[in-house]
Prior knowledge:
Layout: H1 23-34, H2 39-56, H3 61-68, H4 85-96, H5 100-110, H6 113-122, H7 135-147, H8 153-167, H9 191-200, H10 209-227, H11 234-250, H12 254-264, H13 269-272, E1 285-288, H14 292-298, E2 304-309, E3 313-320, H15 329-334, E4 336-338, E5 341-346, H16 358-362, H17 364-367, E6 374-385, E7 390-391, H18 394-398, E8 413-424, E9 427-428, H19 434-444, E10 452-454, E11 457-458, H20 463-475, E12 480-485, E13 498-506, H21 507-511, E14 517-526, E15 535-544, E16 549-556, H22 562-572, E17 576-577, E18 584-585, E19 596-598, E20 603-607, E21 610-614, H23 625-628, E22 633-637, E23 640-644, H24 656-674
Parallel strand pairs: 1-13, 8-10, 16-18
Antiparallel strand pairs: 2-11, 2-12, 3-5, 3-6, 4-5, 6-7, 6-8, 8-9, 12-13, 14-15, 14-19, 14-20, 15-16, 17-19, 20-23, 21-22
Helix pairs in contact: 1-2, 2-10, 3-12, 4-6, 4-8, 5-6, 6-9, 7-8, 10-11
The structure holds adenosine-5'-triphosphate.
Adenosine-5'-triphosphate binds near residues 285, 380 and 419.
Amino acid sequence: QATIKASGNDPYPDWKAGEPVPYAALCTTFSLVEMTSKRLLILSHCSLFLQQVLRLTPKDLLPTVQLMINKLAADYAGIELGIGESLIMKAIGETTGRNLAIIKSDQHEIGDLGLVAAKSRNNQPTMFKPKPLTVRGVHEGLLAIAKVQGHGSQDKKISGIKKLLSAADAATAGKGSKGVDITKDKGGPSEAKFIVRFLEGKLRLGLAERTVLVALAQAVVSHEAALEGKTVSAEKVTEGESILKTVYSQLPSYEEIIPAMLEHGLFNLPDVCKLSPGIPLKPMLANPTKSITEVLDRFEGKEFTCEYKYDGERAQIHFVAPDSVRKYPAATTTLQRDSKGLSSIFSRNSEDLSKKYPDVLAKLDTWVKDGVDSFVLDCETVAWDTVNKKVLPFQQLMTRKRKDVKAEDIKVKVCIFAFDLLFFNGEPCVKKSLRERRKLLHECFQPVEGEFQFAQFGNTNVLDEIQTMLEDSVKASCEGLMVKMLDTDESGYEPSKRSRNWLKVKKDYLAGVGDSLDLVVLGAYYGRGKRTSVYGAFLLAAYNPNNDTYETICNIGTGFSEAVLEEMHKALTPMIIDRPKPFYAHSSVPKDQPDVWFEPRLVWEVKTADLTLSPRYKCAADEFEGTTGGGKGVSLRFPRYIKSRDDKNPDQATTTRAVAEMYRKQEAVAKESTGKRGVD
Ligand code: ATP
């Protein structure tokens, strides 16, 4: 419950009931949010604004929320903006008549394209006053830009951006005023600034998606109470937040939830918005452990089960039989249709992988038993050796094409290992115990060797037996074990949560530092000797969700094959930017700078021997300020490249907090064994 209240009743006074939400009103709120780091105040600003939307123009609630979370649609829709700097600079130049060289030099000096756009906008001579932007207009404009494809798409995108930018800040344009002073108030509520940042994929307001969800719940609860002439209690607000969080975790789609909420009210949402085939949910995640004894301590006295941890790609398979299609309207647009019904495979990130695995979907009817009308399965796809009938290492899977795979061209066969059932024949099963879900899974699906199998499991709590199972899993080309609570409420499926009821025991943890890290590539160094035509080493960073920054953690030059280096050179070259983004936390010492900087796009899995503190890197530096005297971040010693994590976005990289935690754990263990450990 917010204890800090934003001042004023309505954040934006000039908009009238029934009018489209002025984009300027949203930007005013963004600017208020940008000016504070207090979470409760941010929440309060957002909630107040959303209440105003609900009161005046509820039909714009959906695009308003989408613009607030920097997403034009739910993840499964596959709509991505992330437009590169050079295209945006070109569009700013063409809109404002400013020379590209000047814009580039501004960008060099200011380092924030949003502010460069705001500044450029002020210089623009205005012949006529453009019509003010609206939230729905901006949403439509951005969506059109995102959807442009094919021949001449660059020019079309530029023209779409120009259209938005030339209408931006209509209120200040043409008044002969200097408009936004970019040196003050972080640039203020400039529309051009926020449009450009949206295009870049980062609003940089310190506004987490989760905060918007909570603000939305608070706003709706207050609004619904006001309509009934009631006052709102703190308990009611908390209940509303909890309902919306649960509903969203099972049906992560504002396109589905917001219209239903407006029609039926927030408190009735659980009856109308349920987990459903066609809307992928964010998978449940596990916590790392360092030893089997840690597992036994955690699960003491509880029934648990160990499953092989297959090393492939997470796959959420959705299916609706032809006769049931009308029950799931969303599925008709999101799933692939064939004579057997609707089906699709979604990645861990809700990306539709159906075009990568058409062979799996084509054979679906061989492993689905009669009488099954709909399901959502949680599985791992692994590469399969058809001759020796066994699992192949992850690297084999990566050689498969990502898109438009034709069945006849497939060289690497895959097998699906199913480990959970989330929805079955019209009913979500996430609240059932794992024992019940597993029973249903085994009863209703038919294993087919090398195509669809159940994850190997053993229900034991005997240390030696778990140890043997771990060794067997490794021999079977798996990464280790997943240990899961089996009975009671604690064994329910918790979408999108890193749960303490699922533990991962990887073979490497037992010897090393713990989990591997997923890090974002920020820069590179030119190669020497044999590697002159490619990059020889890279600068990596962890993600800090609190202030939306990427904090450098190591240089890496080990673990790459020649082929991987070539492939990375090809992938990274178009992502080169002139200078580091303002949201990169890195050393300012000249000798520490990489030869080139990149847009933050690629995520790599990396292993390390050890963690240390170093002034050269900035990861979690603020957390160790007290102990190191400032300036030292956590860094990796002897980092080694493992694989590219195409299924993760940069903001799903390992967090700086998780890195700090790993470092502290390591230090605690070292202290225990040696009694001392220094900082280098
Ligand atoms: P995280 O998902 O924890 O952020 P990650 O993506 O790097 O990290 P891992 O540490 O490899 O994942 O562990 C979890 C992943 O293991 C799951 O996302 C899933 O893809 C895979 N997996 C393989 N076998 C199983 C299983 N039996 N049960 C659950 N997950 C499994």
